[in-house]
Specification:
By secondary structure, this protein is mainly beta. The chain contains one helix and 28 strands. Helices cover about 5% and strands about 55% of the residues. It starts with a helix and ends with a strand.
C-alpha cells in the first residue's frame, strides 16, 4: 500500500509541474473574504469610468463614457442593491459626450453632463430626469459639487479659470483669491461650507467658501506636494490625499483635520493616486491600487497607523484589472472600474466587499 501511495504522489507532482503557471493559480487565492465580482452590462470598449456614488445599500450610480464611431458616448449605470443595470433614459443619452461627478441633493441625484460640448446638470427626481443648463460653455469642466441650496462647476474658458455657482434659481460667477491659476477639484458639505484645491503661483493651496467669499484656508500641506482629493465628513473631520515630491520621487501623503489640528502622515502606499479614496463603512480609508497581479484588483485599507492590502476575485484571462472608483453602500463597499481581458479592449467591472 505504501508503494502504491508513493507512485500516486509522484504522479500528482509530475502533473502539477506540467500545468502552466497561470492555470495553476488556486481559485480565489489572495482574495479577501467577502470580495465578490458583480456583473455589469457591457459597453462599447474601450470605456472610461468617471465616478461612483451611493446613497445607501439599495442605490448607487456609476458614470463614464464608451467609444462609438462618432466619439465618446455617455455611460450611466444604477445599482439597486442586487444588480447593475444601464440607464439610457436621461436627456442626451444618445448624443456624444460624457458623464462626470455624481452628487445627492436631498432626494434627488445630480450628475455633471458634457452634452456634445455643452455643460449641464442632470437631475433625477421621483418625476424622472430633467436638466439645468450651465450659463456658458467652458473649454474644460474640471469638477462639480452640489448640496441643498448650492452647486458649483469649476473649469476654464478662453479667459481662464471659471467658478460657476448655482443657488437653486440662478447662476453667478465667483471670484477666487489673487494668484489662483486653476481649480483642480471642489467639494461641499453645505451651501456655506465648500472646499476646493487649487494650483497657484506659489504651489498647491486649499480654498474655503464660507458663504461670502473664497479664501485661502491656511491648510499646512507638505512642501512640494499636490492634492488629489479632499474628503469632508459630517463629524467635521477632513482628509486630504495627495503626492509629495522629494528629489523628484513621489510618495503618497494624508493630511487630516480632526476638528482641532492638522496632521500629516505617509502610509506605505508608494506613489498611489488618492483620487478614488473613500471613508468605508468600517470607518477606515479605502483606495484602489495598481495591482501587482494582472488578474486581480488590489485595494489598500488605512486605519490610523495601520495599512493593509487585499485582492479582489480572480478574473480568467485578465491582463489588467483596475478599480477606478469606490463608494460605501450601507455595510458594503462597492468598486467600479475596468478589466482588460487578453485579446480585447478594457470593459466595465464591479466588485463588492461585505454587505
Amino acid at each position: 500500500m505504501n508503494g502504491l501511495r508513493a507512485v500516486v504522489v509522484c504522479l500528482v507532482i509530475t502533473c502539477a509541474a506540467l500545468v502552466s503557471p497561470a492555470a495553476a493559480v488556486t481559485p480565489g487565492r489572495g482574495a479577501t473574504p467577502g470580495w465578490a465580482a458583480l456583473t455589469v452590462p457591457a459597453a462599447a470598449p474601450p470605456v472610461a469610468v468617471s465616478d461612483l456614488a451611493a446613497r445607501g445599500p439599495g442605490e448607487a450610480w456609476a458614470t463614464g463614457y464608451e467609444q462609438a464611431s462618432d466619439g465618446a458616448m455617455p455611460l450611466l449605470y444604477r445599482w439597486d442593491g442586487t444588480a447593475w443595470s444601464r440607464d439610457t433614459a436621461f436627456p442626451g443619452a444618445g448624443e456624444p459626450g460624457w458623464l462626470g461627478e455624481v452628487q445627492f441633493v436631498g432626494a434627488e441625484t445630480w450628475i455633471l453632463h458634457n452634452r456634445a460640448g455643452e455643460g449641464e446638470i442632470l437631475r433625477r427626481s421621483a418625476g424622472g430626469w430633467s436638466t439645468v443648463p450651465l450659463p456658458q460653455t467652458l473649454w474644460t469642466y474640471q469638477d462639480f459639487a452640489a448640496v441643498p441650496g448650492a452647486a458649483w462647476v469649476v473649469g476654464e474658458d478662453d479667459t481662464g479659470l471659471r467658478v460657476l455657482h448655482y443657488d437653486g434659481s440662478r447662476w453667478t460667477a465667483q471670484a477666487t483669491p489673487d494668484g489662483v491659476l486653476y481649480l483642480m477639484g471642489v467639494t461641499a458639505r453645505t451651501a456655506t461650507d465648500a472646499w476646493a484645491w487649487a494650483d497657484t503661483r506659489t504651489g498647491t493651496t486649499v480654498l474655503h467658501w464660507d458663504g461670502t467669499a473664497w479664501r485661502d484656508a491656511g491648510v499646512p500641506l507638505p512642501a512640494d506636494s499636490n492634492v488629489h482629493t479632499l474628503l469632508l465628513e459630517p463629524s467635521g473631520r477632513i482628509t486630504i490625499g495627495g503626492s509629495q515630491y522629494t528629489d523628484g520621487v513621489a510618495r503618497t501623503y494624508l493630511t487630516i483635520f480632526n476638528g482641532r489640528a492638522w496632521r500629516t502622515t505617509h502610509p506605505p502606499l508608494g506613489d498611489t493616486h488618492t483620487e478614488a479614496m473613500v471613508r468605508g463603512p468600517d470607518g477606515a480609508l479605502w483606495l484602489p491600487l495598481r495591482s501587482d497581479r494582472a488578474f486581480q484588483s488590489k485595494y489598500a485599507r488605512v486605519d490610523g497607523p495601520r495599512t493593509t492590502f487585499s485582492y479582489g476575485p480572480e478574473r480568467a484571462n485578465a491582463i489588467d484589472v483596475r478599480p477606478r472608483a469606490l463608494a460605501g453602500a450601507g455595510a458594503a463597499l462597492l468598486s467600479f472600474g475596468t478589466v482588460e481581458v487578453y485579446g480585447s479592449k478594457p470593459n466595465l467591472m464591479s466588485e463588492r466587499l461585505g454587505g
